[in-house]
Design a protein that fits this description.
- This protein is of the alpha+beta class.
- The chain has one domain (3-163): Winged helix-like DNA-binding domain superfamily/Winged helix DNA-binding domain (Arc Repressor Mutant, subunit A), CATH 1.10.10.
- Helices cover 44% and strands 15% of the residues.
- A hairpin with a 5-residue loop joins β3 (116-122) and β4 (128-133).
- The longest helix has 18 residues, at 22-39.
- The N and C termini lie far apart (38 Å).
């Protein structure tokens, strides 16, 4: 995404549940990924780019085998390592995240800077929104400091109901 849209998104909250121009969202994310890979001398191969595009198609986490099915449809091969290698690259370079609860992956909405994401996962439709998190500054950070523990990585995932499914949750 452009730095301006990233600033707006970081300031206004999570992207994923909000209505937005999705085609612009996708094109800006691809441009940001290409720029990041070029700046860091990373190979954004056709398979890696395709996996990233697949993840961007919806603000929903996808499992590796679902991604593999889509890759196969587009002629990229059917061996699981094809998908897993591309996903490993995207996650390692901050272009995607693994949603542990779902054992699935989602494109990063803030690929241009280092951050600690928090994920809100709809228990009804599996939509996922990414927001900024600062666990080291909150209660978890206080507890870690009190015990002398140094936090290196956190995964913040909250399960609930997205705005689109709120009426379905009451049934």
């Amino acid at each position: 995404m452009t730095s301006e849209s990233t600033k707006i998104n970081a300031a206004t909250g999570p992207l994923g549940f909000a209505q937005h121009d999705h085609s612009t969202c996708v094109s800006e994310a691809i441009a940001a990924a290409e720029a990041r890979c070029a700046a860091d001398s990373l190979r954004f191969t056709p398979v890696r780019r395709k996996v990233f595009e697949i993840l961007l198609q919806e603000h929903r986490a996808l499992g590796a085998y679902s991604i593999l099915d889509r890759l196969r449809e587009d002629g990229f091969g059917s061996a699981p390592p094809v998908a897993y290698r591309a996903l490993d690259f995207l996650v390692a370079n901050g272009l995607a995240h693994k949603i542990e609860r779902l054992n699935a992956f989602i494109a990063c909405v803030h690929p241009s800077h280092s951050h600690t994401p928090a994920f809100m996962i709809c228990r009804i439709c599996d939509a996922v929104a990414e927001a900024q998190s600062s666990p080291a500054r909150g209660a978890l950070g206080d507890a870690a400091r009190a015990t002398g523990f140094r936090i290196e990585r956190t995964v913040v995932e909250a399960e609930g109901v997205c705005p689109a499914c709120v009426d379905k949750a009451d049934r």
